[in-house]
Amino acid sequence: MKTETDANTVTHPEGQEQNSTPRPVSVETIPASLSWTKAESASLMERVVDPVNMEGAYRKVVANKGAPGVDSMTVHQLAGHLKQYWPTLRERLLADAYHPSPIRAAVIPKPKGGTRQLGIPTVTDRLIQQALLQVLMPIFDPAFSASSYGYRPRRSAKQAVSAMKAHVTAGHRWVVDLGLEAFFDRVNHDLLMARVARRVNDKRVLRLIRRYLEAGLFQHGLPTPRRQGTPQGGPQPAAGEHPSGRHGQGVGTPRPPLLPLRR
Questions:
Q1: 53, 54, 109, 151: which could join 24 in a potential S-S bond, CB 3.0 to 4.6 Å?
Q2: Is 77 helix (H, G, I), strand (E, B) or coil?
Q3: 237 part of a folded domain
Q4: What is the largest CA-CA distance in the chain?
Q5: For residue 103, what is the DSSP state?
């Protein structure tokens, strides 16, 4: 696989054509030929709110279910909410005027003892985050390590096990198991955004991502400002997704209703 040869260009596997007119895509259907330069990424917010992209994000959010956020809206109420408020929401996103709601704090037990704090965004914010993810993933994923298998499209724990077996067969016998304590709670926002800005030129997208990072954590009746860290509990690409985007849509499984997002 090629590496990044220009700080402003996202490169892709050898022998694959570059697409000069990329379309909005979902994380389940990332075309291997997709190539976006930083200059082209100046219009990413238009790709985020594109009806095809938003409908894919909507189906993903509904399929993932999940608990309500601070506004108590459930995923089953999302369609009705969007039918009424989507035009306004779309214009606010395009005008760089959207501000996320606070995140609802939730605490869950860890398997080996202790607790982990999660942040549960509102269903509307989960929809927007998923739409962002689907547009940003093709830009960033090609540069990730080939040995990284977690939370990436078309990658799974089974593939990681197969890779480990190959290492064992090759004669490697040592395994290093380590973890960074409270890593997500200590992510530096400035460093993270500087990395994102290397590949994203749309200032609206950059500011929206920072607003999500800084969204207050709602606990004890009050939102607590966030100066570092990322809340655990937002959208993630499912490993081993079917390329058709129908992973998990079994026989007899009802599809979410269509949304009036097309203009």
A1: 53
A2: helix
A3: no
A4: 61
A5: E
Helix (H) or strand (E) holding 109: strand 103-109
Q: How many domains does the chain have?
A: 1
Please state, in angstroms and rounded to a whole number, the distance separating the CA atoms of residues 241 and 220: 38
- Domain hosting 183: range is 42-224
Strands 115-120 and 103-109: antiparallel
- Is 163 among the domain residues? yes
243 Cβ contact partners less than 8 Å away, ≥ 6 residues apart: 28, 29, 154
Give the whole-angstrom CA distance, residue 207 versus residue 137: 18
Q: Is the pTM of this model over 0.90?
A: no
Please return the burial class of 41, using the count of CB atoms within 10 Å of its CB with bins 0-12, 13-18 and 19+: buried
Three-class secondary structure assignment of 179-243: CCCCCHHHCCHHHHHHHHHCCCCCHHHHHHHHHHHHCCEEECCEEECCCCCCCCCCCCCCCCCCC
- DSSP strand pairing (217-219 vs 103-109): parallel
| 117 is a domain residue | yes
Handedness of CA 181, 185, 186, 192 (dihedral sign): positive
d(CA 236, CA 238): 6
Mark residue 172 as left, alpha or beta (left: phi above 0; alpha: psi -120 to 50; beta: remaining): beta
Q: How far apart are CA 171 and CA 44, in angstroms?
A: 46
Would residue 4 count as lying in a domain? Answer: no
| Ordered strands of the 103-109 beta sheet | 115-120, 103-109, 217-219, 222-224
Reported residue count of the chain is: 263
